[in-house]
Amino acid sequence: YELQVSDGYEVGRVNGLAVMGEDSGIMLPVMAEITPTQSGGQVIATGQLQEMAEESVQNVSAIIKKFSDENISEKDIHIQFVQTGQQGVDGDSASITVATAVISALEGVGVSQDLAMTGSLSVRGDVLPVGGVTHKIEAAAKAGCKRVIIPQANEQDVMIEDEYEDMVEIIPVSHISEVLDVALEGEAETDSLVARLKNITGSALQDGSVAGPSSPSPQ
Amino acid sequence: YELQVSDGYEVGRVNGLAVMGEDSGIMLPVMAEITPTQSGGQVIATGQLQEMAEESVQNVSAIIKKFSDENISEKDIHIQFVQTGQQGVDGDSASITVATAVISALEGVGVSQDLAMTGSLSVRGDVLPVGGVTHKIEAAAKAGCKRVIIPQANEQDVMIEDEYEDMVEIIPVSHISEVLDVALEGEAETDSLVARLKNITGSALQDGSVAGPSSPSPQ
Amino acid sequence: YELQVSDGYEVGRVNGLAVMGEDSGIMLPVMAEITPTQSGGQVIATGQLQEMAEESVQNVSAIIKKFSDENISEKDIHIQFVQTGQQGVDGDSASITVATAVISALEGVGVSQDLAMTGSLSVRGDVLPVGGVTHKIEAAAKAGCKRVIIPQANEQDVMIEDEYEDMVEIIPVSHISEVLDVALEGEAETDSLVARLKNITGSALQDGSVAGPSSPSPQ
Amino acid sequence: YELQVSDGYEVGRVNGLAVMGEDSGIMLPVMAEITPTQSGGQVIATGQLQEMAEESVQNVSAIIKKFSDENISEKDIHIQFVQTGQQGVDGDSASITVATAVISALEGVGVSQDLAMTGSLSVRGDVLPVGGVTHKIEAAAKAGCKRVIIPQANEQDVMIEDEYEDMVEIIPVSHISEVLDVALEGEAETDSLVARLKNITGSALQDGSVAGPSSPSPQ
Amino acid sequence: YELQVSDGYEVGRVNGLAVMGEDSGIMLPVMAEITPTQSGGQVIATGQLQEMAEESVQNVSAIIKKFSDENISEKDIHIQFVQTGQQGVDGDSASITVATAVISALEGVGVSQDLAMTGSLSVRGDVLPVGGVTHKIEAAAKAGCKRVIIPQANEQDVMIEDEYEDMVEIIPVSHISEVLDVALEGEAETDSLVARLKNITGSALQDGSVAGPSSPSPQ
Amino acid sequence: YELQVSDGYEVGRVNGLAVMGEDSGIMLPVMAEITPTQSGGQVIATGQLQEMAEESVQNVSAIIKKFSDENISEKDIHIQFVQTGQQGVDGDSASITVATAVISALEGVGVSQDLAMTGSLSVRGDVLPVGGVTHKIEAAAKAGCKRVIIPQANEQDVMIEDEYEDMVEIIPVSHISEVLDVALEGEAETDSLVARLKNITGSALQDGSVAGPSSPSPQ
Ligand SMILES: [Ca+2]
Ligand SMILES: [Ca+2]
Ligand SMILES: [Ca+2]
Ligand SMILES: [Ca+2]
Ligand SMILES: [Ca+2]
Ligand SMILES: [Ca+2]
Ligand SMILES: [Ca+2]
Ligand SMILES: [Ca+2]
Ligand SMILES: [Ca+2]
Ligand SMILES: [Ca+2]
Ligand SMILES: [Ca+2]
Ligand SMILES: [Ca+2]
After folding, report:
1. Is the Cβ pair B203, A8 closer than 8 Å?
2. What is the mean pLDDT of chain D?
């Protein structure tokens, strides 16, 4: 099977990126849906998530719960790492992918499908560095993506080969609001959502000083 | 014991398909029932489901919760993989089987019993590819099924032997609404349910671009 | 100690049957009681139930919740496999025994004590085949039972020795309503309960086509 | 330390009996207390209970919940196997001891302290046979008890040595109501409690036919 | 670091005693705090408690729930074994220490800081014997304590060396109300609390006959 | 990557300190956010916390619940140890860091970013000693911090090398209120918060006698 990148926008579906083994990347879509709950709202994530990936989803949920203006206590948030197989998903580098998919599903706003992204998140919306950025960008380019979002703190790590250089635009970001500004469909609606997101995490945006420690989490 | 395929329709009972070992398939019925709950609605699945099968049921539950127009918080959803024995069930290829059985039970609408099906599902209703399609189709044909639903993304994988070719019609689908359109009893009621299902997952149906990665889950 | 079979009827107590080792059966009583709940109704089963037996109880609970016309959310359902010791109980062949004991306790209607039974259940009330039928019937006969209920799908498996042939009547059934019709005390009350049970699982009774796969669960 | 048996009555404290190793018994007091609950009534049992002992407490709770005429959903039931140390408690032979301690605590009625008891219980109040009866009776006699309650089904197992024969009266019982009739303080109050207990488990008392299988649980 | 014993009284802080290895004792403070709850009142104990220590806290909670005249269902009870490190806490000999710390925190009444204590508890308030009494008393004396509370049943076990004999007063007790009478600050308030505690556990105080079995739990 | 210390203040972000291996320290930021809850308020801590770190968060939660004047039962408290990787976090020495981050997030008051801190906490607000103080101070100095908060009980353990002596001010504290007084932004608001915190833990501040035992927890 070949994973085809489509043009256009899709609600609740975002192209994530992961590292496989030592030196190759893979595109890994994340899908989200918001539903009524049976017995108290919860976040349900599938795709054989290992411990760090589970915690990544918990961190993202902090931003979602602050962002949501619906009564989130009567909703279940479903997050699906699509067809990851038995080996599952580890690490926290899909945090911005998950956040974007859930906000897209919550608001019914499409996400650009020729875009891929990688980035960890703080509970206050800061985009934190990840590992394997170069391999991930190349995987996105091979799959046909035209743009890739990476953490600003990883900008100096990018060493992609010449053949991919003109195929793909690299977009460094430092806050989840910048991710949504790039990824979502519709200028007016996007600006409104970005403003709302900046507002709830406002004080965290004033100086840009948040940075990770010297050992970024792999993948 | 011989598993006999019957004509006609049955509420809450769907013929699923699984792979056994390397090169043989088996028909595996899934049954569903909706009941009052004792202490907060839940999804209860039996048949010794292993991890990926449990997650498959969670993904299906997203669609069920969106679809249901009854107060799902006061209902338990029982899903039974019938007589799977100690070895149990793994993988996510029964996702469309489970979804069909539960919707049949919720609505009291019969499911065609000379039909078998295999397919994974996204939380937004996309039918995703699975493994072992050829062996599964042959198992359905041997059991007397006249039609088999498979994921559209698996269409090129079908290499059934000549003897089965005229026995069984293969129906590729890309969304759960197509599965119901084929499986359920009664033209008018089915059309109404399909429309409702399309409506709740509407934006996901516009371009058909969702596809799985290169490594489909086995079984 | 000798397990004596009594004449007459008892509320909430049913003679089940199990296989021990390779080639002998044992009579295993199941008792049930319905009580007020402390903190949200639940099903509590004791007797060191292993995984398949736990799931069997969950399947039975689907039928009980549909059947009950009391507010089951304020009740606990206690199920006790009596004196099974450290080795406990496995398999799903006591499903009809458990269902009968609980319905007897719920309704306060006696169960025939010279009757024993074995059979698996679907969540919609179909009686499914089990293993070891011959050894179980002989165990029931030895214990003094005059009648034994078995799944219709197991009818051809019965090969009991001559000495037991005239001691015990074998009653094949295909739906839980038939079990109750045989087991419960009082013609009028039983007919009313059977009608209610048929009504809640109605569509499942029309063609009798439900059958298990070729590998029935042992015990 | 020497465990002294006192005359008189104590609320919420009952002398149980256990087997240690192969051939000696020990007296093991059980204490109970009923308290307001913090977050939904529950049964809390301490003393390092192993699996069968935990299940024994669950079986006893069925009788307690039926018996209680207070709103048990706002109460916690504390059961303490006193000073059992790291090795803890196994088996179900303290069932009648636990039931008696809890009912004493619920009703504020004293339990005779020169009495010891051993016996398993069904969820409907039948006293079921246990192992080690002879060693247990001797342990009770050595500790100064004047009376010992045992299951009627164990009556033929009693083979105590001559020296204890005149020290201790053996009282066989077949239902929990008989245990309370012997153990509780005050003729009038006891008769009223026994009547209430018989009433809630009425149909189970009519023929005395309940008996355990041939392999009683040890201890 | 040296653990200094202070004069005066402290709310929610009690000097406990533990045995380390074979032949030395250590003073181990327990602290308690009562707070609003987030989601249904619970008891939260920290300090790497092992199984018997966890159960000890559950037994103590029975007394606390009976004692509390505030709505305990909206409160969390925090219990902290201070700086016990990775090895944590085992055994039930801190039961009276925990009970005293929690009641002090609940009532806002100070606990004497030149006092240490050791003792197990029944759910009805009886102080039960513990191991290592002599080593514990010596540890308390070394740390500067002037008084040590021990279980009355351990009185004959005390064999402290001459050098400590005049430094420390030994106070044997048989009920938790006696512990509070010795430990709490303020004659009038203490008498009122002791009376309340005696009242809720009244019948248990009439004859003093409760005693543990011959094998007291170590530590 | 280099962790840059910024001037100024940040809401919900505090520089913690940890020991790595035998003889080096590391700065480890902790972030916090308060959000609406989906199904009953809870404390959610990420960063692969091991047992002692989990318990440390529970102890801190006691102070937070007492401090909060909002309805904490409808809030989730998110705590994130940022990018700690697979090895995670152990020990309780980040207790004051976590408490400060959460109170900052609850009140929307900034925390000084050129400040780092280490210290354990009692449930009543006492700052308790930790291990590795010297290595932690040097790590903070290297990262550019100008001030480091340590427990008063660790004051005599500080043996930093000459080169760091003039770079960093060491601030010993004995209660969480002193930590906030140093760390928070804005004189008036800080004084008000400190007063509120002193008030809820008032009696614990009168004599300063609380001290840990001789074996402080490492890290
Ligand atoms: Ca834009
Ligand atoms: Ca910032
Ligand atoms: Ca159709
Ligand atoms: Ca689509
Ligand atoms: Ca009949
Ligand atoms: Ca049928
Ligand atoms: Ca009497
Ligand atoms: Ca009977
Ligand atoms: Ca006094
Ligand atoms: Ca007493
Ligand atoms: Ca200040
Ligand atoms: Ca103090």
Report:
1. no
2. 89
